[in-house]
Amino acid sequence: MASPATAAVENLPQVLLLLHPAAFTIFGEEHFTSPKFRFLKAYESSLPLDEFLAANARSVRALLVSAATVVGAGILDLLPELRVIVTTSAGLDQLDLAECRRRGIRIASAGDIYSADVADCAVGLLIDVLRKISASNRYVKNGFWATKGDYPLGSKLCLFQLRGKRIGIVGLGRIGLQVAKRLQQGFGCTVSYNSRKKKNPDQVPYPFYQDVRELAANSDALILCCGLTEQTRHAVDKEVLAALGKAGVIVNVARGAVVDEKEMVRCLVEGEIAGAGLDVFEDEPVVPKELMELDNVVLSPHSAVLTRESMMELARLVVGNLEAFFSNEPLLSEYEDD
Amino acid sequence: MASPATAAVENLPQVLLLLHPAAFTIFGEEHFTSPKFRFLKAYESSLPLDEFLAANARSVRALLVSAATVVGAGILDLLPELRVIVTTSAGLDQLDLAECRRRGIRIASAGDIYSADVADCAVGLLIDVLRKISASNRYVKNGFWATKGDYPLGSKLCLFQLRGKRIGIVGLGRIGLQVAKRLQQGFGCTVSYNSRKKKNPDQVPYPFYQDVRELAANSDALILCCGLTEQTRHAVDKEVLAALGKAGVIVNVARGAVVDEKEMVRCLVEGEIAGAGLDVFEDEPVVPKELMELDNVVLSPHSAVLTRESMMELARLVVGNLEAFFSNEPLLSEYEDD
């Protein structure tokens, strides 16, 4: 017979987890728990997912997902009582939004909590690529400064100034706007942008380009900050890379598939663009092996959102959204279609 | 017999070089030449320096130096006709300024041309240390993301947010002010500073600390941007590092000797401070070997001033100052004591 404490826990409403959320590994599951709900972990079952859901999940009203958890109509059909999806991601491209809307499933995202960190990472990657910080660090740590002389070797100085650079931002949402502010106000760059719609010029003074290729042709660096949609998939293609040109740099903190990765790799290897700072890839965690040897390419493992401070805020928001849902209170960060 | 062209070159006024300037190696000597003067290169002679100067340099009126060329009374005694020193450095700590003043020798420095690049490098190093960009890059390039999982491993998330951090700037000159602008306006940090004198608060709104230790106690990161003087030598000592504390970060784009390097290395190894981004060292190009293995330490080889764009501007300024001197025109960037 279950103890009263166990029975009390078993009576708590369930929050379904399909995959192990990365945030649990990175920051600790204990930060995401609450006395007001308990987790139902599909990934700990030996059953196939559909059998597990058929056996356990027909009464589940809440689902917690990360960026990696794809939720389409098939899963939703197995969860007829589902009313809320809370995601640890700011982007929602893993969710079938139309199906959620049709079924009346509300969505709470991580909202704006990552924007500053992602913007910082974009600027950090850009400075690193232009000034070769990671490559210099490796050079010094290998002991080459004392034995081989100044980095870079040879007469071709491959460190470039940030001031005055023309920055093209693809996707001027919350992250893009923060990147723009840092680079224009802080570093004296000039900013232009592409996005679905031109922003109100009274609020957003940067020049708008309807066409990414044209933006690239007028930029020294393209910084990708857009969501992944059918419109932005491979938005940076062969023609855009050619327009960016031999002195141009790509920074991607959006999603890997916003770029035609194969074509970008070819351009980097053949010197058709100058460098890249990449936090995201088309087939993560697999990274094209050609990039591993290039000093003008800086790679980070989709960690633009990962800081101790943002994880603390995420935990507060996830627990708060789920507790609010189960208490019939307004969600803290409900996503609304625009 | 010399050809007319050779004779014409030999009649040009001489600009003495004691050491091979780094800028010649990095950017190319051809950018620093002029039809109005010629270089007299002591470093190409097999004679000891004093013999070379006694034999060749008694009529030399102009000297071109870099940061590495120490010029004291001994050298100046051998150059009685010297009237101008042009340096490729912004700092003047290699020159005996009192002796130069006493002898009426004018000085033209690189002025403000490096400030933006150095400030960019300081911010880049700070982001790198907080967000572990170089360490992540190495992790991904070693293929560990696909084989070992997310970086950082384990439950202790060691990536930190920049927003809201308390930045203490030591030396609020041209570089320090540009660092302050980037971090406060661009990234939402709060800035305080220490310098020889408190600035006019109408022009400089940041809180002033007379004492570096007290600044450190109230900062998450100390960014060193001061010149090296007897007052600033080892300004960051054991007590300051202890005041900065276990969560604190040091960024040094000033001079290595502003920090007690041995003590800083001990603090980094023993976890008494959180990390460091270092462009300068006490005994360059020798870097303490204890730093080579630390993921929370980012090293660059005194390259904060090195960009293609700043080298182009330097060449314009060096040639312009020397041509102006030989034409009895005002120097482009004359140093004046304050």
Automatic annotation (TrEMBL), chains A, B:
Name the record gives this protein: glyoxylate reductase (NADP(+))
Lineage top rank: taxon: Eukaryota
Broadest EC class assigned to this enzyme: oxidoreductase
A cellular component term, taken from the record's GO annotations: cytosol
GO biological process: photorespiration
Alphabetically ordered keywords of this record: NAD, NADP, Oxidoreductase
Residue intervals of the D-isomer specific 2-hydroxyacid dehydrogenase NAD-binding domain: 123-304
Database matches in InterPro entries: D-isomer_2-hydroxyacid_DH (IPR050223), D-isomer_2_OHA_DH_cat_dom (IPR006139), D-isomer_DH_CS1 (IPR029752), D-isomer_DH_NAD-bd (IPR006140), NAD(P)-bd_dom_sf (IPR036291)
Start and end residues of each D-isomer specific 2-hydroxyacid dehydrogenase catalytic domain: 48-333
Organism: Linum tenue
Protein family per UniProt: Belongs to the D-isomer specific 2-hydroxyacid dehydrogenase family.
CDD domains membership: HPPR
Listed GO MF terms: glyoxylate reductase (NADPH) activity; hydroxypyruvate reductase [NAD(P)H] activity; NAD binding
EC number: 1.1.1.79
